[in-house]
Amino acid sequence: MPASRKVTIADIARHVGMTNITVSRALNKPEMVRPATRERIEQAALELGYVPNAFARGLKRSDSRLIGVVTASLDNPFYAEMIKAISRHAKQHDYAIMLFDTDGDPRLEAMAIETLLSYQAAGLILSPVSDEPDYRPNYLTRLQASDIAVVQLDRTLHDCGFSAVVLDNPGAGERVARYLLAHVFTPDRRTREDRLLVVAGPEHSRISRERLHGVQTALGEQAGDVGIDVLWGDYTLAPAVAQVRGYLKTHGVPRAIFGLNQLITLGALKALREAGIDRDQLSVIGIDRLPYLDIFDITVPCVVHDGYRAGAQALEQLLVQMRDPQAAPCTLTVRGELVT
Amino acid sequence: MPASRKVTIADIARHVGMTNITVSRALNKPEMVRPATRERIEQAALELGYVPNAFARGLKRSDSRLIGVVTASLDNPFYAEMIKAISRHAKQHDYAIMLFDTDGDPRLEAMAIETLLSYQAAGLILSPVSDEPDYRPNYLTRLQASDIAVVQLDRTLHDCGFSAVVLDNPGAGERVARYLLAHVFTPDRRTREDRLLVVAGPEHSRISRERLHGVQTALGEQAGDVGIDVLWGDYTLAPAVAQVRGYLKTHGVPRAIFGLNQLITLGALKALREAGIDRDQLSVIGIDRLPYLDIFDITVPCVVHDGYRAGAQALEQLLVQMRDPQAAPCTLTVRGELVT
DNA sequence: CTGTTAGCGCATTCAT
DNA sequence: ATGAATGCGCTAACAG
Predict the structure, then answer these.
(1) Yes or no, beta carbons of A98 and B96 under 8 Å apart
(2) What CATH number belongs to B9-52?
């Protein structure tokens, strides 16, 4: 019967009449031990219910098998997808994941980083609560001074020198704009009052800015008379609903609405429905796929990014950085695809 | 400037001319140290960029601040919701989450448990890959022998003696059946050929069995002539689509389809659409909410369970078990609500 | 309030 | 192929 007290390597050494170190080797570097003794040791370990102590091991050897994942929202399906990929690939390389959902709270984010540092995490995949330029968390210098590898995912900190996997935001904006030019704001149907409503994230969010900029570029070239209205908010559902609701009341129905992420787009659609505005009175287009809608024959054109791929790439990049701490930081960009 | 080498408690002790233990206390039990020295120590810690070593601490004091979460699928929104709740509440009690997505693979599950044991996790929230009675993982005895607290969530292992938070599965089945009796298989419209198609999870899954049993009970009482066809599968989308597709071909369109979870229901709807069968030719009803569909005016009646609540309760229960290892295991049931 | 001593469990020397 | 000694960084005892 397995004791309630912890079984250590010493217990099993005593059990087989060897010393600690031999047991340690038998368990970690089997080739350095005679097969016969190894078997006896493994046998004993099983019988006694031996469980290696990760703390003791981690204390001795300085490298840990831990990768931290810090993200602002588990419930965003796009993030869930990325985390799935990270988790799956981390496992393949024998790393365990320590997950932190910061819930958009900078304090929780800071605590998460502290915890990861104290656990000597080998790497960190970070998607901070904000990508606005003036968000300069205190933990930054500590992180940079530490020898933990860091890869940012999707959201990034303003020039912090870490690697990153980001989406092609300007490109997504451009693609949307070109689609609108081809199908909505066509020369023949264009009027002076045509307005495009862009529902964005936080006002200084890099991602929102880039996406918006893509739109402006592509639209500006050919469509001097399409006016763009922008509503700033955040990347969640409820505020988007409220914003759009207000806009509809004061400005009426725009010709098209562009939601800068999935939840925003859903929010806009919800506001439209509340207001009793049928979806064929205007065009709605978004970034990120609205899941499962194809099943109901609902098509909302959108730029789709492969979250699984982004997550996988982030982990790959992290492994590179972990292998070679000197490796130059690099930024990978995942392109989206317009799906109509 | 922070050194690249680790700063330990000893370094900062030297820096302020005190001994290790005083520093340790200043950092962990501030009230045991004179305010003045405490300040100097905290100051020094900051300057030197001190990071506590969780391994050393964990080795010394045997209790860890880690909670493991082992689940079969991060991408199931219902699970994502539960994990969100767990994460949020764990943080409030100063526990970090170690997350394992087993991807439905029993081997990965076993590895996850091993890892958690070796990290001396204080608690574990487990949703195993299978809830079929013949799934008896090897790690069970080790887990039982260990002093790690365990709470099962949603899926459970057949009488393993651990606490659990589960859904009211029979109740959900009954509620669905009663709804069908009231609105679909009404006496006046009932015919001998009326069939109800239930699309279930694995054939021996406790959850599926319970839900199905609920249906049979409620239906059997009053509806001798409603035939039930059951398709066994798993709890994911693709197999459900395939199953229902096949059924439609061979059996034609049933009077109603009942999907035993969210992804199954979506799968059924997808198969219907592929087959060009309009949704008002039959009734579709499910368990778990299909997210965001209200936005599009699509209503699929379903029994909704509060995943956030379930997750939160699991964590509460875990804390209870952790506080008092003797506490009797208990099973909490979360009731669902029919939403039409 | 502060210091001394000791040891958590394991793996890295260097021996044999 | 195996062993002896040592220390990773921290904190619980018990002093003082």
Answers:
(1) yes
(2) 1.10.260
Q: Is B252 on the interface with A (CB under 8 A)?
A: no
Q: How far is CA A106 from CA A135, A137, B247, in A?
A: 9, 8, 52
- b/e code B178-207 from CB counts within 10 Å (16+ = b): bbbbeebbeeeebeeebbbbbbbbbeebbb
Helix (H, G, I), strand (E, B) or coil at B218: helix
Q: Does residue B148 surpass a pLDDT of 80?
A: yes
Give the pLDDT confidence score for residue B4 in this predicted structure: 52
The confidence score (pLDDT) of residue A292 equals 85
CATH, range A169-304 = 3.40.50.2300
| CB half-sphere exposure, A324, CA atoms < 13 A | 8
Domains B9-52 and B169-304 share a fold: no
Q: Which of B83, B66, B307, B94 is nearest to A79 (CA)?
A: B83
Interface check A56 vs B, CB under 8 A: yes
Q: Which of A1, A119, A298 sits opposite B54 (nearest CB)?
A: A119
pLDDT digits (tens, 9 = 90+) for A212-246: 999 999 887 666 667 889 999 998 899 999 999 99
> B120 vs A53: CB contact, 8 Å cut-off?
yes
**Which band of pLDDT confidence, cut at 50, 70 and 90, is reported for residue B1?**
very low
Do the Cβ atoms of B296 and A293 come within 8 Å? yes
Mean pLDDT of B25-47: 87
Q: In the structure encoding, which two tokens stand for residue B192, read together?
A: 């001998």
pLDDT in tens, B75-121: 788 999 999 999 999 999 999 999 999 988 999 999 999 999 999 99
Sheet architecture: strand order including B195-199: B227-231, B195-199, B256-259, B283-287, B302-304, B337-339
CB burial class (10 A; 0-12, 13-18, 19+) of residue A191?
exposed
Residue B87 has its nearest CB partner, among A84, A101, A270, at A101
Question: What integer pLDDT is reported at residue A315 of this predicted model?
Answer: 97
CATH homologous superfamily of A63-167+307-335 equals Response regulator (3.40.50.2300)
Q: Does pLDDT of A61 surpass 50?
A: yes
Helix (H) or strand (E) holding A97: strand A96-101
Cβ neighbours, 10 Å, residue B250: 6
Where are chain B's structural domains? 9-52, 63-167+307-335, 169-304
Indicate the pTM of the whole model. Answer: 0.89
Contacts of A117 in chain B (CB under 8 A): 51
Which one of A78, A81, A98, A99 makes the best mutation probe of the B interface by having the most chain B beta carbons within 10 Å?
A: A99
pLDDT at B137 over 50: yes
Closest Cα of chain A to B111: distance in Å?
10
Distance from CA of B150 to the nearest CA of A (A): 16
pLDDT at residue A3 in the model: 40
Say yes or no: A202 contacts chain B, CB-CB below 8 A: no
Query: Cα–Cα distance between B18 and A5 in angstroms, integer?
Result: 36
Reference A152, options A69, A30, A250; nearest CA is: A69
CA distance A124 to chain B (A): 14
